[in-house]
């Protein structure tokens, strides 16, 4: 008998479950995970897909139902009260924050020297926020975050919708995500070929057999096409066209709009509006379906027979077979829940390390349910009955006829139930400690028992480090998401984005812990009054503390429009009315020239007008008497 090999990979923390790592073969149970053993699924993805199913079963209180496939009907008796789901919901709320804001650096700087840069940043920020509102970005993020926290990975897909005239955002289950990772590359690098694949069930009403749908995005060289609009392999290509070859001359590329032929190398390059340098590669889209009966032989999702594929078409009637998207990136974003280890691509579920504690907790809940049944309906022993054949039922008002030496004995199981409940609380605390969720974040701590705010802050230390690591894993992907949105708007030639230069944008997630608003206000007021922080920084600190500031830029404008003392100091410093009016956001008053004074002629003789002025006459008389 051979020894079982020890497997250590991104999902080896599940090896303790017999249904995931068969004692004989060390592989997931085939009957429990038939989807992972489909003919088109690569062998390297079997354990990953099986892990997703196990975690989804815990999230939906179906872990016992999954274990029944191997351990029999007794596994269905386990009680599952939603503890894993509660942990997932809590972590999702913390990693999302109370609110989310799109911020373009420089858009809210009112005192910057370069007004054109600030105006460009402000314009992009406004357009991105408008897109986020139309596309329901917080809801899409919530969908992806629940997949990422619970399963370890989340997937976004961006595409241009010509009808709605904006980029659309979708989330996919990570079980549909099959990247082609290079063997000699870093797993953290972006793959140059990505598949989104899933099976479609049989539809007898429409006469459709079970099928496999695969959407593929891949980066490849820009390929010239023939005059008929297809490349040399017969696939439609939206790219530079090559003339038909004749006996006298070979085919000559006819360069399309935006494409150029490099005469030295013979390659075609393209200048995208968001790049400073030309690009020789583009993204191709293929959307096709196969009947499962046609998938025979040694194939997987990356090597499906293209001659048996049925290609989809888009709204413009273009066949989606290596269709040139005129993009220099793959609009698919994989969001890991945690920072992947070196040379790894996949994240880890937040439930991973505490899964055995959840198993023990479910077993304790099951034992508690059985013990509570005997406590509520106690076991009774009767001896010395007058009629041994009589049937006795325990209930209110029951009468028992006993003999002279008869005895009625009850068995009290409440101490065992009490011990089981305390053990359940200990296991719940153990699971929370492993996941790094303190009791205050789960809402299970009595606020009156917290000795001080400093003690509360110390208790949130593990949660702070946990959320910081999770947000670090998402920070770059959030920036890429907003960068791709800008490029898709420009590529779609939306009129509002004409002449817009893409700006680095950030997705700022709000606070997740309770904050002392009064203390934050005092800190901000003291620092701003001492001129050690700017007004923009002060508003940002108040926003993070939970103050109801929806738009920081407008809030700054409203504050400055009433800062008359600062305006007076600005007027004294500059002596420019226009600058002061601009600071207050008001219209400067029109300046009128003072009237020219009408002075005396200076001849020493009284004119006709002076003679009528008694004051002038008095002055003249007084001078004469002297």
Keyword list:
626 residues; six-stranded antiparallel β-sheet; three-stranded antiparallel β-sheet; 18 strands; flat; disordered C terminus
Percent of residues in β-strands = 15-25%
The major β-sheet equals: 6 strands, antiparallel
Radius of gyration: 38 Å
Total number of helices: 17
Specify the overall morphology.
flat
- Given helix and strand content, the structural type is alpha+beta
Unreliable stretches (pLDDT < 50, length at least 5) are: 238-243, 250-257, 619-626
- Beta-strand segment tally: 18
Mean pLDDT: 81
Share of helix, binned: 25-40%
Distance between the termini: 143 Å
Walk me through the structure.
With 626 residues, the protein is of the alpha+beta class. Helices cover 36% and strands 15% of the residues. The protein has 17 helices and 18 strands. The strands form 6 sheets. Strands 4, 5, 6, 12, 13 and 14 form a 6-stranded antiparallel sheet that branches. It has a 3-stranded antiparallel sheet with strand order 3-2-15. The chain has a 3-stranded mixed sheet with strand order 7-8-9, with no helix packed on it. A hairpin with a 4-residue loop joins strand 2 and strand 3. The longest helix has 31 residues. The protein is flat, with a radius of gyration of 38 Å. The protein starts with 45 loop residues before the first helix and ends with a helix.
């Amino acid at each position: 008998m051979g020894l079982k090999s020890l497997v250590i990979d991104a999902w080896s923390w599940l090896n303790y479950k017999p249904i995931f790592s068969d004692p004989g073969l060390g592989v997931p149970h085939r009957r429990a995970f038939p989807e992972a053993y489909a003919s088109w699924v690569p062998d390297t993805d079997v354990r990953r897909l099986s892990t997703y199913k196990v975690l989804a079963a815990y999230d939906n209180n179906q872990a016992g139902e999954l274990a029944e496939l191997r351990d029999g009907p007794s596994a269905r008796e386990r009680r599952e009260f939603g503890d894993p789901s509660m942990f997932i919901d809590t972590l999702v709320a913390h990693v999302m924050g109370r609110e989310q804001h799109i911020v373009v650096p420089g858009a809210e700087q009112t005192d910057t020297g370069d007004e054109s840069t600030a105006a460009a940043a402000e314009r992009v920020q406004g357009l991105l926020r408008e897109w986020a509102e139309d596309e329901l970005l917080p809801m899409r993020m919530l969908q992806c975050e629940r997949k990422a926290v619970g399963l370890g990975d989340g997937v976004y897909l961006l595409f241009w919708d010509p009808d709605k005239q904006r980029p659309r955002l979708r989330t996919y289950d990570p079980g549909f995500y099959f990247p082609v990772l290079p063997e000699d590359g870093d797993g953290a690098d972006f793959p140059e070929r990505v598949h989104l694949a899933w099976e479609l069930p049989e539809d007898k009403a429409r006469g459709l057999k079970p099928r496999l749908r695969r959407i593929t995005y891949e980066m490849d060289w820009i390929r010239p096409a023939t005059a008929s609009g297809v490349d040399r392999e017969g696939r439609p290509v939206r790219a530079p066209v090559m003339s038909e070859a004749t006996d006298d001359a070979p085919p000559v590329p006819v360069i399309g709009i935006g494409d150029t032929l490099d005469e030295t190398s013979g390659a075609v390059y393209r200048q995208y509006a968001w790049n400073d340098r030309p690009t020789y590669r583009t993204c191709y889209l293929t959307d096709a379906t196969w009947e499962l009966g046609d998938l025979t032989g040694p194939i997987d999702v990356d090597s499906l027979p293209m001659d048996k594929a049925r290609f989809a078409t888009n709204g413009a009637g273009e066949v989606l077979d290596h269709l040139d998207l005129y993009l220099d990136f793959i609009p698919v974003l994989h969001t890991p829940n945690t920072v992947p280890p070196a040379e790894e691509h996949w994240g880890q579920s937040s439930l991973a390390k505490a899964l055995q504690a959840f198993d023990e907790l479910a077993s304790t809940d099951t034992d508690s349910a059985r013990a509570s049944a005997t406590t509520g309906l106690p076991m009774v022993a009767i001896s010395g009955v007058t009629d041994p054949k009589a049937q006795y039922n325990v209930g209110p008002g029951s009468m028992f006829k006993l003999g002279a030496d008869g005895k009625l004995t009850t068995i009290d199981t409440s101490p065992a139930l009490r011990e089981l409940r305390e053990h359940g609380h200990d296991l719940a605390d153990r699971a929370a400690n492993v996941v790094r969720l303190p009791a205050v974040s789960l809402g299970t701590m009595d606020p009156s028992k917290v000795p001080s705010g400093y003690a509360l802050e110390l208790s949130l230390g593990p949660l702070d480090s946990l959320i910081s690591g999770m947000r670090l894993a998402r920070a770059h992907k959030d920036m890429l998401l907003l960068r791709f949105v800008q490029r898709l708007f420009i590529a779609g030639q939306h009129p509002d984005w004409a002449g817009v230069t893409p700006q680095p944008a950030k997705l700022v997630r709000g606070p997740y812990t309770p904050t002392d608003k009064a203390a934050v206000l005092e800190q901000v007021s003291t620092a701003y009054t001492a001129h050690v922080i700017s007004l923009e920084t002060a508003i940002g600190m108040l926003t993070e503390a939970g103050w109801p500031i929806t738009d920081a830029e407008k809030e700054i404008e409203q504050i400055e429009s009433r800062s008359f003392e600062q305006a007076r100091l600005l007027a004294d410093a500059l002596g420019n009315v226009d600058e002061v009016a601009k600071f207050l956001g008001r219209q400067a008053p029109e300046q009128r020239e003072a009237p020219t004074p009408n002075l005396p002629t200076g001849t020493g003789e009284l004119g006709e007008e002076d003679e009528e002025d008694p004051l002038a006459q008095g002055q003249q008389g007084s001078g004469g008497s002297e």
